[in-house]
């Protein structure tokens, strides 16, 4: 049975009945098969699965889609039931932030201002603040995050390490449509032509990975990725396409690396990334 709670008091009561290990999957709702894969990964690793559904105003900029973000709790509960979740915590904004906007927020450090953070100022302050609050409220042994939001996963891992948060952060590989598009709640904003244009992101990643597999250097890998992006159905506008270290740290690249991309498709901003294996530097 999947229990739904909306308040911290009810969460605390329900959490106290869960014996054994607890895995948490934090979401903003509008659940899709990507989320379901996270839930199933949690089901495999932990005795109990706790899902949070909260559209966190703190991580949205003033001109972003907080108001129109899809809110589909009934359908989300069905996904949670199907995946065998024990407990769903779906608080209101007032329940999470009873004193209004918190004055104390987590500082994500230098990486928080790069890539997603450069385009979405304050985004990772908002994400890490709510993630830490949700960890405190749910007290999990394990927390599952998707690789689709690779910088978020990296920063949550770093926060747990740097601040000695007693949780194991587990990354789950990106779930894709058969044509390569990474599943994302924001895909439901896309019109048919926009969806075709959105394939430019995964096409760029595949081309970059192929070039790396052929032993090409970092410049050629990036060129291949850019060329594939530009060759896609018109309509996607690149924000960034960056080849970086797997920890998103600066420095020379050799061996394992990560290709990360963000682009606007109409009014929708999409992100994606892929593991790349570069030839070792001579
Ligand atoms: N395609 C996917 N594969 C694996 N994990 C995913 C996928 N999409 C989302 N997740 C993960 O699910 C968790 C909750 O994400 P969220 O609710 O923001 O969904 P989303 O699809 O990323 O939404 P949005 O479109 O708003 O970015 C995050 O850890 C996220 O990385
Ligand atoms: C981790 C998260 C639930 C925090 O609001 C959100 O950023 C998301 O859904 O990836
Ligand atoms: N999917 C990560 C949360 C966000 O984009 O707001």
Automatic annotation (TrEMBL):
The keyword Nucleotide-binding applies. Catalyzes the condensation of pantoate with beta-alanine in an ATP-dependent reaction via a pantoyl-adenylate intermediate. It comes from Micromonospora vulcania. The keyword GTP-binding does not apply. (R)-pantoate binds at residues 59, 152. ATP binds at residues 28-35, 146-149, 175, 183-186. It is an enzyme of class 6 (ligase). Its main location: cytoplasm. The active site is at 35 (proton donor). Beta-alanine binds at residue 59. PANTHER family: CYTIDYLATE KINASE/PANTOATE-BETA-ALANINE LIGASE, PANTOATE--BETA-ALANINE LIGASE. This is Pantothenate synthetase. Keywords: ATP-binding, Cytoplasm, Ligase, Nucleotide-binding, Pantothenate biosynthesis. The gene is panC. The lineage of its organism: Bacteria, Bacillati, Actinomycetota, Actinomycetes, Micromonosporales. Homodimer.
């Amino acid at each position: 049975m999947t229990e739904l709670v909306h308040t911290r008091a009810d969460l605390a009561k329900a959490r106290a009945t869960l014996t054994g290990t607890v895995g948490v999957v934090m979401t903003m709702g509008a659940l899709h098969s990507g989320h379901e894969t996270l839930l199933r990964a949690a089901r495999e690793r932990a005795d109990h699965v706790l899902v949070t559904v909260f559209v966190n105003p703190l991580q949205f900029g003033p001109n972003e889609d907080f108001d129109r973000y899809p809110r589909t709790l009934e359908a989300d509960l069905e996904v949670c039931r199907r995946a065998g979740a024990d407990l769903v915590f779906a608080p209101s904004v007032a329940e999470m932030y009873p004193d209004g906007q918190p004055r104390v927020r987590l500082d994500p450090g230098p990486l928080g201002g790069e890539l997603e953070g450069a385009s979405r100022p304050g985004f990772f302050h908002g994400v890490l603040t709510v993630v830490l609050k949700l960890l405190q409220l749910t007290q999990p042994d394990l927390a599952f995050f998707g690789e689709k939001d690779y910088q978020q996963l990296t920063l949550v891992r770093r926060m747990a390490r740097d601040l000695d948060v007693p949780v194991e952060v587990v990354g789950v590989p990106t779930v894709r449509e058969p044509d390569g598009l990474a599943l994302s709640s924001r895909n439901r904003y896309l019109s048919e032509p926009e969806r075709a244009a959105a394939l430019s992101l995964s096409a760029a990643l595949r081309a970059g990975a192929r070039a790396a597999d052929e032993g090409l250097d970092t410049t050629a890998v990036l060129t291949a990725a850019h060329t594939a992006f530009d060759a896609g159905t018109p309509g996607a506008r690149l924000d960034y396409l960056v080849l970086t270290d797997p920890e998103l740290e600066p420095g020379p690249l050799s061996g394992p690396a990560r290709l990360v991309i963000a682009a606007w498709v109409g009014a929708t901003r999409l992100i994606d990334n892929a593991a790349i294996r570069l030839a070792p530097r001579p």
